[in-house]
Amino acid sequence: MSQKQLIETAYAMVADDKGLLAMDESMPTCHKRFAKLGIPETEEYRRAYRELLVTTPGLNESISGAILFDETIRQKTQEGTPFVQVLQEAGIIPGIKVDKSTKPLAGHPGEKITEGLDGLRERLEEYVQLGARFAKWRAVITIGEGIPSQGCLEANAHLLARYAALCQEAGLVPIVEPEVLMDGAHSLQRCYDVTEQTLRMVFAQLAAQRVLLEGMILKPNMVVPGLECPKQNSVDDVADATVTCFRRTVPAAVPGVAFLSGGQSSELASERLNAMNVKYKSRVPWALAYSFARAIQQPGMSIWAGDPANVETAQKSIAHRAKCNRDARRGEYSSAMEEASA
Ligand code: 13P
């Protein structure tokens, strides 16, 4: 795979003010969300739900690529069309989550490490055969007393970089996702400090592993106060802190910053993305885009609740959330859009 093709794919993933739909929940995560809504935790319900997502009418108007899970990239619609084909025919680029989830990091209480590097080269080859053009690896950084530790940050950054290099060797654009979690009572400033430290380390490791920056996408958290922090800063404060942090850490060669939503409400994620684009779109070198799972899916999943009769209404919600985020990339999102849709 030539560098040119990698670069073209990376730019296509954030082109036209679109963004990514993360629909790569592992089985336990998917089941946790199903359980809350009383949806049976079976393979058929997982398949039916993912069919609902990939067949959403108009999804391609706001979604450039979809991140699939190992099970999902092999699944088909009820009529027998592979999900990958459904996406390709809609002009949506298929991608694949390739990490094998997080485990406790030995010797580091409260911290996590992502597994999945063993045998990755061979797995990537198979995913390319199955039609994937990009991949995702998520590292998790927890804020707490005395953490994150240097050891945790270094180990996770190193794995992200080794994964990214393997992806590019296989012709897949790596989405590099170091997620600083929102859990906790920490302040916006503390999230800023940890995110800055994390990104510095990630880009140092990416350079050490000779990752082509033009052929990757960064998927970071926004810089936000902890969920239990008594002071919840304004949308503008979050936009300013986030963009300031990235300007200081993310090289201009990276085509796109595609945020995760991380447990923010759907509306807040759109509002914050909108504020960043209103203020900074023309003044930053990379696209400020989205790669949301919950902030696009959650309202639609609640409407569906496992009942085939609700598919159409749920799909309208998915399409609506995706469109809100496309509008946010254009700096044209407003909460009035929510009322109009309701
Ligand atoms: P959320 O948008 O729900 O945080 O998920 C994004 C993601 O893909 C996590 O890896």
TrEMBL record:
Entry keyword set: Glycolysis, Lyase
Biological processes annotated in GO: glycolytic process
PROSITE patterns, per database record: ALDOLASE_CLASS_I (PS00158)
EC numbers on record: 4.1.2.13
Family: Belongs to the class I fructose-bisphosphate aldolase family.
Domain of life: Bacteria
Enzyme class: lyase
Any one Gene Ontology molecular-function term assigned to this protein's record: fructose-bisphosphate aldolase activity
Protein's organism: Gimesia fumaroli
Name assigned to this protein: Fructose-bisphosphate aldolase
Pathway linked to the protein: Carbohydrate degradation; glycolysis; D-glyceraldehyde 3-phosphate and glycerone phosphate from D-glucose: step 4/4
Reactions mediated catalytically: beta-D-fructose 1,6-bisphosphate = D-glyceraldehyde 3-phosphate + dihydroxyacetone phosphate
